[in-house]
Write a structure and sequence with these properties.
Strand content: under 5%
Radius of gyration: 16 Å
Number of strands: 0
Number of helices: 4
Distance between the termini: 7 Å
Shape: flat
Number of domains: 1
Helix content: over 70%
Length: 120
């Protein structure tokens, strides 16, 4: 369940960033409202997940996974260039998150298999 909840937070963060881009400097009302909704829901989710997972893990996963997802959205939806440097950097971010999650002592796992656990 922790993994699914954290994944939802990452998706809200990426959606908020995408709506921020679509708002074109806050000049379009609907994307601004959608952005505010996504970011507000994300923050509420963070408050709830921090009761179950370590702060360092939650913020590392949220920030890095959000960066990678937003970069992919930028490349796919906004036709931003995918340079070799960008691809290598994104790969290093992913490896860093894997290292944080599996590389040391941890109090709680956030593997996808936890999605079947229905406890909150």
């Amino acid at each position: 369940m922790n993994f699914c909840f954290l994944l939802g937070i990452v998706l809200l963060d990426a959606a908020g960033s995408t709506f921020l881009k679509l708002s074109q400097g806050f000049s379009h009302l609907l994307p601004v409202l959608a952005m505010l909704l996504c970011y507000s829901a994300e923050q509420i989710g963070l408050v709830l997940i921090l009761n179950r997972l370590d702060l360092s893990l939650v913020y590392a996963v949220r920030s890095s996974a959000g960066m990678v997802l937003v970069a992919v959205i930028g490349i796919a939806a906004f036709h931003e260039p995918l340079t070799a440097g960008k691809a290598i950097s994104l790969s290093l971010i992913v490896l860093g998150v894997i290292g944080l999650n599996y590389g040391g002592a941890k109090t709680t796992s956030i593997s996808p298999s936890n999605c079947t656990d229905r406890t909150v």
